[in-house]
Amino acid sequence: MFAVTQGVLVDPVRPSAPEIIHDKLRLRVLPATAPIATWAGLGTGGICDGCDGRVHGKDLEHEILLPDGAVLRFHARCALVWEALRQGFGL
Ligand SMILES: [Zn+2]
Question: Structural domain boundaries of the chain?
């Protein structure tokens, strides 16, 4: 089921990656702490901590090391969204 909003086709069931990441930050499912290191490479088939989609081998993946030793895995685009949004929830 699709809804057309201002000429743009929108799937009302599936939220966009930025919406998911924003909700995860709001609910503290994702941390808002500044990373201490970031690595980029090709995906290894893991699940993105941002959008919950799979990071396929053809996708660019970012691994983000947090001060507590936790590592987040994101699609490159989801890492950018998280980095931009987390500052609004900042510590
Ligand atoms: Zn993602």
Answer: 15-88
Look up the pTM and report it.
Answer: 0.81
User: Could you report the per-residue pLDDT of 8-32, keeping only the tens digit for each?
Assistant: 555 667 789 999 999 999 999 999 9
Closest CA to 48 of 12, 69, 77, 70: 77
* C-alpha 15 to ligand 1 mean position (Å): 12
Which residues, by Cβ under 5 Å, contact ligand 1, an ion? Answer: 48, 50-51, 75, 78
Residue 50 has what DSSP assignment?
A: T
Q: Where are the beta strands (DSSP E) in the chain?
A: 3-5, 8-10, 37-42, 60-65, 71-75
- CB-based burial of residue 79 (10 Å sphere; 0-12 exposed, 13-18 middle, 19+ buried)? buried
For the chain, give the number of residues. 91
CA dist 91 and 88 (Å) reads: 9
